[in-house]
Fold these 4 entries.
Entry 1:
Amino acid sequence: MTTLQAPPSAARVAVEAPGRHGWWRWLALVLLLAAGALFAHSPYVSVSEIEVVGAVRSDTRALIDGAGVGEGALLLWVDTGALERAVLADPWVFDARVTKVWPDRLVVEVLERRPVAWIEGVLGWMLVGEDGSVVDRARRPRQGLLRASIAFPDQDPGVRPVDPAWHEIVGMALVLEDAIGGTLVLEMRGAEMWTEALSHQVRLGHPIDLADKARTLLAMLGAELPQGAAIDLTSPSRPALILNDSRHEVEGSDEES
């Protein structure tokens, strides 16, 4: 007896069909990825402009070039974190941010340290930023900023010393920078710090609480002081005038506890 075979059923056709459709889907995905790779490596998404914002004293462009990033670099492969670290190597740079702007731009934003004081070293002078970091060195200080003729150990640009007296001087410079800071020279006389402000000798005492002493100094200079009087700020809450070797506390200062 002959067994009749039924023609291929609809169910069998249905099973085979998804396999063929799946193959086309994989092919489409591969083609899409290939097209994306070709586009990512095309001149249309290569760096054609690098915009640097905020760099005045720092040599940011040279650092970018040194990192191997320039016009024609593939934007997709630019490591923004590595580029930021390269820019931060400049002692003038306090912070940096690199942003990709598709399809072909890089924006490098730089926040520079603001110089506030010159501090003398053994072999020269160090220009110091607002956070206490050394940003530059010179044989002689330039005018316009507070100068501390104290002879600290020499530090290279980029170093932030930990000496408390160093940061006390920076704190004082920050208070005075918009007023008389550029006219003052701090010096040590024995164990005490002195300066001269508007023809008045100023005794600062030990280099502690210098920011508070600076505020008190500004307040006292705003009043009419006797000619030739020296100002004693060894205690910023109890300032005094020295006249004819006699110490007179300023009215309004805190009373002794």
Entry 2:
Amino acid sequence: MRITEKMIQRGMVDDIHRQIDAMARLQDQISSGKQVRNLSDDPARATRSVALNSAHAALMQHRHNAEEGVSWMNATLASLSNARSSIQTARVNALQGATGTASAESRAVLAIAVDRLSGQLLETANSQWNGSSLFGGNKTTTAAFSTTGAYQGDTGTMTRDIAPGETTQINLTGQEVFINGENAFQVLADLKTALNNNDGTAVNALLPRLDAVMSQMLKLEASLGAEVKRVETTAERLNELEVNLLARISSNDDTDMPKAIVDLQNANNLYEASLKTSASLFNISLLDYLQ
């Protein structure tokens, strides 16, 4: 095959076009900060990028679930503490009212105090977090208890995925906190009645029931507190995993700026050298072919 001058010229033009394309890619990498903008640029790297960023998105969702769960559980723990405090105060009142020296008048005053504690307990039982009922089970848009202390929620559990294959239950229902075992509202109502009736024996008989209510709440606090610690530990582990994952994403996706700048300068030097060489070999300018 005879190599003509025009074929040589065309070959040099093709080389210069490739150099221009290479410079354009390097400039794009520098300006965008990313090594791959299109799948065709580097299929293997692009595929890794999709997998790594998908893993990061899943990790972020798990961490969000864990943080949301901890916030919900901490709000529940604060409400449990308030509820137990109300029952503890009612027990102190019961001890005062159970003594043989307590008068009808003093017991009537204690009954008023217990009635206020019942109101506080109801308010605590209807606590909300971000507009959602804490103790209503899955019925989060309505109050967990009516004004008479009747439970209006359900026994539904709220779970969150906090890591691959790992979940947590973040809620306690009003049924298990205030109703199961001893009905906290009924115990306070019975205490109020006994005090108003000036019945020290009946007041004394209510002390074990008050203790049972507090014991139930304390057990739930301890269990939920342990779950908070577990989820917080998982969240910390997710934070560490994210640091490592972001480093891998950066290594795969981000442009190595010093190297890219040097490569661009070398490519530009090669491009200018090619233009000068072509101009010295031929009488016409190769720029005519590049138009």
Entry 3:
Amino acid sequence: MLTNICLAVPFEYLPPAPISFCRCNFDWQRIGTESFQQYAVQQPAQALGWSKKRQAEYLAGRYCAIHALGALPDASARFPTTQLEIQLEIQLEIQLGIQLGIQKDRSAHWPTGTVGSISHSHSRAIAIAARNKDYWGIGVDCETLLSDLSATEIAPWVLHRNDLNCKTEQPLRYGLLITLIFSAKESLFKALSPSDKNITGFGDFSASCFVSKVSANKVFLERDSRHKSIHESRPQRNTQFELAYIIDQQQIITLALLPR
């Protein structure tokens, strides 16, 4: 059911501290009663009432999360040294039975000492993980590129009034720009919301920040000063955020890293 499993971080820049990444493709039509056991992912009780597609999304996302956790270097090491060492760490995580529970808001409950994020879109699932001594928040999001018509339909829900005034290095198709704005805000929302209780939902969050600039591989978001701080609980009180993004196989993947 799971194919094209990859541990390589797809973004070109070097992060300020170690992060690990796992992605895969999945075929929801091939999920069966044995799939959770096959991939060493604990099946939650509520999954019995889910559709096959929802079960496949959950399984693929948790599988990627477990492997991203396993690929984290030891706390005493800066970065993993060889692919063999990464694979051995992953196998150890699986043998120890590392699993991610479900919190009340339906987000993943990451093990103590770690932070992470999961996303899925159509047939792809991705997850990132890091140690919370290095980052107080991380977020990843994957979105299939929208057509111009579909982008027009979701724009009122996603856009801040300044979003379409953002600077771009080259003209972007409307559907691509809206997809990128949406995905970047999703990643930043995932990175900020676990530690900022002032963030009550994505809709309000989306209205409180806007994209100011888009380069070839980065997107820059700013906080609207008219809104209550989305970051006031942190000592840094950032008002600007720099995210990475790539376009891969008709999908956009965005990454938000908030180092300590």
Entry 4:
Amino acid sequence: MAEDRALKSAKKRIMQILWGVIVGAAALVLFLTAAANTSQAAAQTMAGLPGVGRLVRVVTFRSYRDQLASGQGQARVDTLMVHGLEDTALEKKINTALANWSEEMIARYHSDLEEMGTAGGREAVDCRLGRVTMTDRFLSVQLCGTIAQGSAQELTRWYTADLETGQLLELKDLFADGADYVDPISEEIRGQMQRQLAEDPHAGWLLRSEKQPTGFWEIAPDQSFTLTEDGRLVIAFDEGEAGIGVLGAVEFEIPAEVTDPIRAQNSPLAAA
């Protein structure tokens, strides 16, 4: 009888454990489904699910908040962190880069407040997660910032990690050593601007000319960039760098035909 009671007790305990696992799994599915359907940011951070691919998340590591009683300054800066990459060294690299930009935004905020002093100026700073793109080859995370002093300026920074090589990529890393990538990419962007301005003179692009001597002419060698899921290059600009303020931060997709002749042999860029 004692053995029977022990056996029944063990079976009951096993069923309780199994039921707990089933309920927990169901709750996880419901949570993920609800999050994906109700929050774009949550959906973007779910780069993989258990049993389907890597579970890689972009989470808020810490949040800086400041609200001056005088109303002169207000800041909301999130420091984001990638969690779940198999390459922990690469994960550390991208997290350091994400944290550095958040710290730069906070430092700029305090510096601006100090410069304004009691002159009566106001500033609001915001830093948050933008888009997230992940493939088997790369992970790309966008940080978006806004600095408002009367008028607001949108800022954008992309951080792209090569999951195959373990490298946090700079723009030059996509191309063969010594290749001139600035000129052909800049020429393509100017061409896109010119074609759009020809169709609509009010398109808003700030293309350098005699009438617009301070307009866009070429990208910086370390210009912010990302990649589409199929490997095409996308060049990103802060508000005012390439277009009028109402356009905000803008991007230009570069055809593979432009980048293919100069791409590095093991580059994540798509071939033409």
